[in-house]
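re: ur question from yesterday

yeah so i grabbed the chain u mentioned. its 354 aa long if i counted rite. heres the sequnce exactly as i have it in my notes:
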Amino acid sequence: MTGMNKVFLKIIIITLIILIILVIIFSSFYTFWSVSSPDKTCLSCHEINNSYQIWLSSSHRNISCTECHGTALSSGFHSLKEKLNMIRTHFQEETIEEIRLSEEQILESMESCVRCHQSEYSSWLAGGHSATYEAIFLNERQNTKYRPYSDCLRCHGMYFEGNINDLIDPVDNKGPWYLNDTSKSKEPVIPCMACHAMHFRGNAATRQDYAFPERMEYNRPSWISSVSFYYRQEKLNFHSSLLPIPEINAEGNPVKVSDDQRQRICIQCHAPDVYHQSGTNDDRTPRGVHEGLSCLACHAPHSQDTKNSCKICHPVLSNCGLDVETMNTTFSNPESSYNIHFITCEDCHQKKMK
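ran it thru and got these structure tokens back, copy pasting raw so excuse formatting
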């Protein structure tokens, strides 16, 4: 073997050794970062602190950050690009005190939600809140009646990064309408995070003292609603307790509104007009025989299904003693003139009420 070949062989060996050492160092660091607690890894970036502090007292506090956010290699080059982008953002000139996910990242995070919340996801998928951009913004009947405008995104497309002109074309009542980005056609306009903040305070479930079963009810912690409303303009989730109880009136008379915190989220989108008139716009706040009931008394939280709602109260508690499910209301017939949300005794018993 010539001298030149020996030198070349040494270079190859040294290069391989260096590469092996780098792989070992990287693997060790990657493993450490993936298995260590957040206070030793993620929290080293001050922007993470707010989310970390809330996570510490949440029902997810025993779930590692990587379970939902993944690692630098969990999704191949895509996740590596995301993590490198975080480093770039961290060192950029503009100071960012709180990191917020993009719509694309929100939808990616939903995949993590599904792993543990499959039942809730299935219910959501079967309900109206799983509507897509295509279903909402290319709806000919809706667009012909109401010209699309940017405030539509307040409820349908809360995380969309742009305005209505960026989403569809043309923005008028004539059409035909097209999505400027066709890849968004099947994306949901109301993802999980529209009503659920990911880092949210909550109590983890604990076993009771079975030696005294009669005391179990009294020892349970007070129920706290975990839902929140994502406000597009502020790019923040507001806990339901911070939302106001709306003042609604019907023909000048105040309507009793349920104090169920969760309903305060419903009213953010299913709201009356500026005069707070019951039944205007998308308002469905119960009045009449159902006045004071919460939306969630009849609607299943994730699917909005109401098929079993009447059975919960009727006919046992019905003053009529009749099968209310067969009455001429919108519960059984969508063409009925008697809206189940607003029906009164007088609607069906006009003669008897005189």
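noticed a couple things. Residues 120-194 form one domain. also The first strand starts at residue 168 and ends at 169.
anyway ttyl
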